[in-house]
Specification:
rod-shaped; single chain; alpha+beta; 54% helix; 9 helices; five-stranded antiparallel sheet; binds adenosine-5'-diphosphate; binds magnesium ion
């Protein structure tokens, strides 16, 4: 499928959205439940303290407990009453003595004796308790005569919360797995029509450029026939037409290549290929053009490098790069083509001492129809498709291509292709 990048991005966006929603949901559930439990614990403890207060009567410095709390624990509430002058009024059951003897409660006791109230969390056995420690006063003199301690187990709060957490995590994991699948399916579905339209468009361009070739060939043959018979100014007209038809033919050819490549209809047929041999061969072919332009064409071949590649495409790639170098190098300049093997790669460099590419144009030269100097390149016969095709060829061979250039000094194009061992 085309659009693999877009698909991944869209799916990732859906997925992130989903995870965020799940995360918010989990957070809200956890927060609400823990707040509710906490409120309930506080509420319950306060009620118990008020209730305990009601059954205590104070006369002078003596505290008495009325009927109810002979057994100082009802339900889950445990209490102890300390009398400042004398004995404990209400004794907790022996198992809970430990709870109230916990040294962590000492500061709270001291504060209560000074009249202040506090809540402390204390461990007893395996249980966590919250202990409310408050002063008992003589209602008339307001003198502190004792300390009331009311304890309630609160381990269940944490237990419930950790159970809730476990369930939320489990549900979220299931949600995330299902969500990942759903994200992918949704992304696929939203991209399918676009992808189809794109494919149709590419096929259309490929067909259209292909259809243009036949009439162009016909025009060319006819004008050539005319040129043979023409005389005077007609000869010049005919030549002009042939030049233009040639240029048009080049553009249509390049366009067809790119359109077919886009439509995935140009298979790459790989076979072992000796780069040095190919470069040497192409150099021989290009020599007459180089001589005509007064440019020194120089090979820099070190040993041999073999790549697994489509010979037609690699040849096309080298031609595009050499053609650019020769076109943009004035007479007296130098163009060299190097091939070296470097850590598992075959590196091809095409260097020229020509006019260079302005820094502002450099990021764009691989774009289709991009020409740095439009006016001059037009008469040079360039259409701006060469480097776009070069990039496609390099990408199709899992290589990379980079251009370094200094205006007025020259340009170096470096291609790396995976080498055969
Ligand atoms: N070796 C080079 N020296 C200077 N400019 C170059 C060189 N190679 C490419 N360019 C610039 O990059 C542009 C794009 O190159 P290309 O895609 O081959 O298109 P074309 O050669 O058809 O104009 C060229 O128009 C030219 O301005
Ligand atoms: Mg070119």
């Amino acid at each position: 499928m085309m659009f693999r990048g877009a698909l991944a991005r869209l799916a990732a966006q859906y997925f992130v959205l989903l995870v965020l929603i799940l995360g918010c949901f989990d957070f809200i559930v956890y927060f609400t439940v823990s707040q509710a439990l906490q409120a309930r614990v506080d509420n319950y403890l306060q009620k118990s303290v008020v209730e305990a207060d009601h059954v205590l009567t104070v006369t002078g410095d003596t505290i008495n407990a009325t009927q109810l709390i002979l057994d100082p624990s009802y339900a889950d509430t445990f209490m102890q009453v300390l009398q400042l002058s004398g004995n404990q009024v209400v004794m907790p059951s022996p198992t809970l003595q430990n709870l109230f003897k916990n040294p962590a409660l000492n500061p709270a006791l001291a504060r209560a004796k000074a009249g202040a109230h506090s809540e402390t969390e204390v461990m007893a056995g395996q249980q966590l308790f919250v202990v409310d420690t408050s002063a008992i006063r003589n209602p008339k003199t307001h003198k502190v005569v004792g300390v009331l301690q009311v304890a309630q187990p609160i381990s269940w709060v944490n237990d419930s919360l950790s159970r809730l957490t476990r369930q939320l995590v489990l549900a979220s994991v299931v949600g995330i797995v299902l969500g990942a699948l759903a994200s992918l399916v949704m992304a696929l579905r939203s991209l399918r029509p676009i992808s189809r339209a794109f494919q149709r468009q590419r096929e259309f361009v490929a067909d259209a450029s292909h259809e243009l070739r036949t009439p162009l060939t016909l025009i060319r043959t006819n004008v050539e026939a005319w040129l043979r018979r023409a005389s005077g100014p007609n000869k010049a007209y005919a030549r002009n037409i042939i030049d233009e038809v040639e240029q048009l033919n080049r553009i249509v050819g390049d366009l067809t290549t790119l359109a077919l490549a886009d439509a995935k209809q140009l298979p790459i047929e790989r076979q072992p290929l000796e780069l040095n041999a190919m470069v040497r061969d192409l150099m021989t072919q290009a020599e007459p053009l180089a001589q005509e332009r007064g440019v020194d064409l120089r090979p820099e071949l070190n040993g041999g490098v073999r790549v697994e590649a489509d010979p037609t495409r690699v040849r096309q790639l080298l031609l595009i790069l050499m053609d650019n170098a020769l076109r943009h190098t004035p007479s007296g300049g130098l163009v060299s083509v190097g091939v070296v093997r470097e850590n598992g790669h075959a590196r091809i460099t095409v260097t020229d001492s020509g006019e260079g590419i302005p820094a502002a144009d450099l990021p764009h030269i691989f774009e289709r129809f991009y020409r740095a100097d439009k006016a001059r390149n037009r008469e040079n016969g360039g259409s701006g498709l060469g480097l776009a095709i070069a990039k496609w060829i390099v990408d199709a061979h899992r290589g990379d291509i980079a251009v370094k250039s200094a205006e007025g000094k020259g340009t170096e194009v470096e291609v790396n292709l995976p080498a055969m061992s």
